[in-house]
Amino acid sequence: MVSPSEIQASGAVWVWPAESRELVGQYVRFRHEFDVDRVDDVPELLISAASDYAAYLNGEFVAWNQYGDFPWRKVYDRIALTRRLRAGRNVLEIVVYHVGEDFFRYLKGPAGLIYALRNGQTWIASGPQTQWRTESAYRQGPMPEVTRPLGPTFEYDARKTQNVDPWQTIRPQDTFSTDEWPVRDERPIEKLRLEPPAPARVIAQGVFRRDESSNPDATVARRMLSDFLSPRHPQDFYDHSGDLRLPNARGLNVRHESPADGGVYLVIDLGCEEAGLLELDIDASAGAIVDVAWGEHLDILRVSASIGPRNADSRNFASRYIARDGRQTFMHPFLRLGGRYLQLHVSGAKRFVLHYAGLRPTPYPLEHRGRFETSDWLLRTIYDVSVRTLELCMHEHYEDCPWREQSLYANDARNQALCGYYAFGEYRFPAASFMLFAETLRDDGYTEMCAPARIEFTIPSFSMLWVADLGDHYLYSGDASLARSVWPKVSRMMDTHLSRLVDDVLPCPTGNGYWHFYDWAAGLAGGYGPGYERVFVDGVRFDAPLNACFVMALDAAVRLARAADDPTAAERIAQQARRLRAGFHAKFWNTERELYKTYVGCDAPDHWAELTQSLALCIDACPDNLTDALRRHLARSDTELVATTLSQSLYKFWALLQDAPRYGGWVFQTVADQWSGMLRQGATSFWETLQGAEDFDHAGSLCHGWSAIPVYLYHAYLTGIRPLEPGFRRFVVDPVVSAGSGSAAVVPTPAGPIEFSWRWVADRLHYRLVHPPQLTPQLSPALADGIRES
Fold first, then answer.
1. Could you report the per-residue pLDDT of 519-538, keeping only the tens digit for each?
2. Is the dihedral of CA 509, 514, 516, 522 positive or negative?
3. Which domains does the chain have, with CATH numbers?
């Protein structure tokens, strides 16, 4: 029996107009008027919604952003209202947007809002006193998808805010209880910050013509991409052009005559990759249409508003705003945008003055407890941009990229969390992300591909890496609470897969519901959808990367079992992991090539990949007499192996750093070459692949969390601080002294910071180490022969 949460105990009930509870794409505004005799010291609002909300008290914006949760386990926010609640009459208004469709970061459920406002011992709660009306300024119903992971775009007509529907009272049929839909948990992490508008600059302007006859049903994004652009010089376009920076108090008054079949356009540069809420500040005539596109680059000399085949509407990075008359500010709180550039196409305007168009950043509140210092400017820049990339991919949970998906993947999250432990020393955020996956564990022993979500296929290897994520978290945080809470599910998951072994290896699951992805490289990206099951018609297929990830999961499960005080299970799983290591070598080793095959069975073609060899080394499946040869293959510039891409390069670097004296210099030179290549092309955050925007049919992300791994490599190896026991109770100090002239770092731990620096002085290694007294260092041989400075 789960005890009721505070919001449930307040007497609040879920509210939503019954006739639209199951509809798609609904915006509803709720209102609650109440009187307060005296304001308590700490008044607060408790609130949960499906799918998202924006709350206003006495006309002031006070909160937004529902935590990503599940219909059967809703999460509520606690919002402090200090200095916002006032004595006398108060008005609480909450706009709720209900998506009503499954996407990669949202799990479909019934529409609803529940809230309780506490002032002293008095509660004001959702129920019969709540009023509602349709938020008619937003276009209701289904809208084109930005992308499948991100969900719908939007359209807003500000003219409709001036003639609104009357308020309606909540009826009994408009309520449902928390027994039906429990609100169990308070948000497990901090709320996002909403910062002032990011500085921007207009960098191009002109007029456009639009041919509506060619495709009258095209999306806003497709129309913007098809518009014919004719540039104009600023001095010929505005009534003054001395300052094109935004925000602009004076405003950029567009005085150019626009064509009847088009309008004017402006291209805006935020100066770097950003993630936040769209904000417009304009003075316009009623009915002026402002189409807004956003993106990460101008590779086609405009923002790529629509990406994909012609007549396909799969990627629509654009929305529409229709102005009322006069000066107006609009912020859309229900879709976080990622990118660097905005493009406005303004049509039907008799007057248009731009004061601002851009993003209000919404960073997760983080403290930079970690620090990395070096005299090498390039390494320092790579580190700083990597940390920036991490921050841009952390909001409600880890996300792969802020522009195209904003989805949580266990594979990506492993890279991100390992970097975050060093950069931020923060453990609640990764724990919350990993717990989301725990809620998605299926009967087949795999998690959903993303969380919270329900998707028609999953990636088996990512499910295994989720368990590795959990093991990493316990090692770095030393906090056994997460391990104990997930252990029953992890134990069931491991037993499910161990029962399926054939010759001490795990066969691939079959059918359309499994995407056997391992890397964005030839032969490793898998496939899914109709016809993929034919791969398995003639028998069982075994994939070396899946089995390697399973061994990693088993090793992590041993650590979790010990944290959960289940030593019997820990020993049993450890024995099974040893069996799988032997089975891996027996199944995939090719004596003739002296390499591991990626696939065996089902007449799978020979496939030889760097990732496969790297994973074999990472899980210690390769006999000692063969490891040197494998590492030589990985470090060759003329290798015949399929190269590892940025997405899984961590495993290649791990494999080589097992012999850091020999390959450490090669690893860090490779990192410098590849990551500086992105910097030389103007990157302000690191990319999904080295092909940048050109990859994935011109939809490559220019900000991807998995590419922040230099943060981890510089701390854990170049400086050499790694935990050996949970919470750094015992830690290794083993810098790669062959890879440079020295470095210094602060590594945050649960017990306090470890400070370490090393440098060469006249061919002698000098170092300094300061650490909390309850932590025990294990010095490398190089340091044992060095000189310790006070």
1. 999 999 985 333 334 444 45
2. positive
3. 6-186 (2.60.120.260), 200-361 (2.60.120.260), 367-443+672-790 (2.60.420.10), 455-658 (1.50.10.10)
